[in-house]
Design a protein that fits this description.
It contains 10 helices and 6 strands, in the order ββββααααααααββαα. The protein is mostly helical. It is globular, with a radius of gyration of 23 Å.
Length: 325
């Protein structure tokens, strides 16, 4: 965990003062992911009969739509927490564990530091892409087929940013891959609130590095979709496969997540033994898992029908072949 990549001290230029500024690793990595994704999309655009300029214009609006959509879904899912942060600041609040006790946080919803939800970001990005596609008279599904390999590639850097920021951490684990986050991290605060460690400044228990696992998963998905671009059987195939594969992987990885602040639509607890200590782990079905399941059911049926419609038909045997038979 290394959330602050670079610290810039305050400085002056004549009568103007600037800083100090902290450059966050998450923001830098997300920016790099978006830039690399845009470069790949623009380069492949001519091969899919899309003007590179139109692809770049679309990317700018899609990026904005993704940010707004992800934040909006987060606010909807955690509306109760933001309400309590303003009107009931003394209540325990998983989103504001580092805030001063009793200090109201009425305007916290305006910033992006509170978090976003990926599926909301994808929905916002697709709505923005639909608006641009209609305005520019471009095939929307052809445009999304171009975009989603870049989306998966950009998501790799996003999850690396999550690892550096300490968010989206996994459940406690005694296996070889367990990673302990330092005091002051979200994992440390959550483990302290559960009574598993003592003090906010203590290291967390070793947890599953779910951020790195999802980064590797998204890298594999990006490579597969890039390979598929020249072999697609119908427009929209790459888009559908992105959602089907990502929803399956995300739904499974959610079972390894330990950040309970993301919220559960259906919750329960279970006992696990870590380093000889029995822990009662909060668990359940998250918002992302329910959305993943719905996507798999709906898109799976649509994809099955589409592949049957576009399956190559076998030519009937000729008269000579029938005579030989």
């Amino acid at each position: 965990m290394h959330p602050i990549l670079l610290h810039l001290d305050a400085f002056s230029l004549g009568s103007l003062s600037f800083g100090p500024w902290d450059v966050h690793a998450y923001a830098v990595l997300v920016g790099l992911g978006m830039l690399l994704g845009a470069i790949v999309a623009v380069r492949y655009a001519p091969k899919m009969d899309i003007d590179p300029g139109d692809a770049l214009d679309t990317f700018l609006f899609v990026a904005l739509g993704g940010i707004l959509g992800g934040r909006l879904l987060h606010l909807l899912v955690h509306a109760g927490h933001y309400w309590d942060a303003c009107f009931h600041p003394t209540r325990s609040n998983p989103l504001f564990q580092d805030a001063a006790p009793g200090q109201a946080q009425c305007f916290a919803w305006l910033g992006l530091s509170g978090g976003t939800i990926w599926y909301g970001g994808v929905l916002g990005a697709m709505l923005a892409g639909l608006a641009v596609a209609r305005y520019k008279k471009i095939s929307f599904w052809n445009l999304t087929d171009l975009a989603f390999p870049s989306v998966a590639l950009g998501h790799v850097f996003g999850r690396l940013g999550c690892f550096f920021a300490g968010c989206c951490y996994g459940k406690p684990s005694s296996s070889f891959w367990g990673v302990a986050f330092p005091g002051g991290s979200l994992a440390s605060a959550m483990h302290n609130s559960q009574g598993w460690i003592e003090g906010l400044h203590a290291h967390s228990l070793p947890v599953v590095p779910t951020q790195l696992l999802e980064a590797v998963f998204n890298l594999g998905l990006a490579i597969f979709l890039l390979f598929l671009r020249g072999k697609r059987r119908f427009v929209g195939q790459i888009t559908a496969l992105y959602f089907l594969i990502y929803a399956t992987g995300r739904g499974l990885l959610e079972f390894l997540r330990g950040d309970v602040e993301r919220g559960f639509l259906l919750s329960w607890t279970r006992e696990v033994t870590i380093e000889g200590n029995t822990l009662l782990l909060p668990d359940g079905l998250s918002t992302s898992q329910v959305l993943s399941l719905l996507l798999i059911l709906v898109l799976g049926f649509w994809y099955w029908k589409k592949t049957r419609q576009t399956a190559p038909t076998k030519k009937p045997p000729s008269q000579r072949q029938r005579q030989r038979g």
